[in-house]
Design goal:
seven-stranded mixed beta sheet, six-stranded parallel beta sheet, 44% helix
Length: 454
Amino acid sequence: MLCVAPALPVSGDDKSDAGNGVTIGRIASVLAEETGMCATLRAPADLPRGARDFEAFLAAGDFALAVALHAFKCGDALDALAELRAKTKSGVKTVLVLGGTDVNVDARENPPRAATLARRARAANVVVAFSPSMVAAAPRGALPPATTTTVPQGVRLPFHAASPTRDGESADRRGSEKTLHDALDVPSSTPVFLLPAGLRPVKDVLWAADAAERAARCAAETKTEPLVSRGGGTSPSLRDPASACSEPSSRLPPPAFVLAVVGPALDEPYASLVARKARACSAERGGAGAFAAAAPVPRGALLAYARAAAGVVNTSLSEGQSGALLEAAAAGTPVFARDIPGNRALLDMLAEESAEEPAEESAEEVAKEPVSSPLARFPRLAACARPCGFLFAAPETLAEAMASFAEDSELGSAMRHAAGRAAARARRGAEALARREREGWRDIAAGLLATEKA
């Protein structure tokens, strides 16, 4: 009776496993818990068309609030609600939750779409952004300041489950699930970096594929002495930027690490490119390559993958607030992110929130040894370190960071130490953000529905 929350249409059987589906489902749960009212989820394809049919739908459900995620993916629903509100003075309140790509991609440098975003934002009672950077990314004047607010994303993880389970499976079947390393057919000692993403251009999962293959080759070759490169002499280390091990040797050793993409095909042409790249990397080695693609799995299995990974990676061109990185933070897995405004804002928010949380280490200890200090002798990687993760402006630097995890060296030890400290702080920050999300939606519900705060 409370929430009509249009979720994004996605490929696959279980829509709730997609990033935006998980987000809107969590918001609906928070609203239901905070108000005691009933929350109902509807995908845009399942909603009626036009104001008249929409009015009948709302009346039949006795709904009081409609929450739509993404100004363009849920555009028809928002337009119907606006028309209904103008013609009938409907009492149903509307909240527009910005998805990220609606302001960062769809409306950017596109005046007609910017005007559409502005119109839909003005028609909503409240506009919610996940971070100030998302508001700043919107076209000038598109978001009304009086009704725009920031509510960070939280996260809910089934920490009680040591192994992933599919919906409806009993606990005695958990042991039959494949681990991340089993799914990729790589030894458990090989560091695997998980890149969870629906396969579409904006996720840009091929951003670091070539660099990862070169870095893994170099790292592995240094362990097989003496291995002669085509130019003669021993293979150069990736630490030497002047020589990038770009030429394949006469034999390729197993990769020192694996960057693994896991997610559904949301754009078939792009997904085909990803699959071809993964097959090419595998063919070069006769086994798993440094860049690999695994089949989509249910959300529980994906969370188990994230816990088992050496790090969770994001290479997107645009992000509102990455749910995958936030889930990694909550699980205590190091975050490796492309340096874009949304990812930078998320790491900053995690750092701000973790600073207010009680920590095992004292403030004096933190001040004496910042996250980047273990990497002080390695300035390129130290420059990427943040209190709660790592940001990379170039794919080669991301690849170097991943390769260092496999090294039995001073750099490898320093990188693992820095990542562990950052992950511990990020987890505290994620817990605090979850509380802030609950408080933010509680305030929105109280204001729109005249309910008392729980």
